[in-house]
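User: Hi! I'm working on a homework problem where we have to compare a predicted structure to a textbook description. Could you give me the structure for the chain below?
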Amino acid sequence: MTVSAITSAISSLVEQGQARVQAGKSTGASFSDTLEAAGTQAIGALQNADMQSMTALAGQGSTRDVVDAVMSAEQSLRIATGIRDKIVSAYLDLTRMAI
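Assistant: Happy to help. Predicted structure tokens:
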């Protein structure tokens, strides 16, 4: 999962959301479904990096594959952490609002 792929996916979701708002209907994937899918992809990248590392330790994988998988997993983890931080920040902002 690359940054450009995530950016294009987010842009696509924003465009779909804007189209739904203009159409006056709320069908399709919910925000929680989208977050779940992103989390699942991040976990998949981490598991792939782990699998590539174990394969290389067994002497069957290349160093380049391991480095690529680990870099992809690190990028996914940083993106997931950034999203989590934004969600927590938004929640804290909501809790500070006066009713």
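For your comparison, note the following. The helical segments are 3-23, 31-57, 63-96. Residues 5 and 76 are 11 Å apart (CA to CA). Good luck with the assignment!
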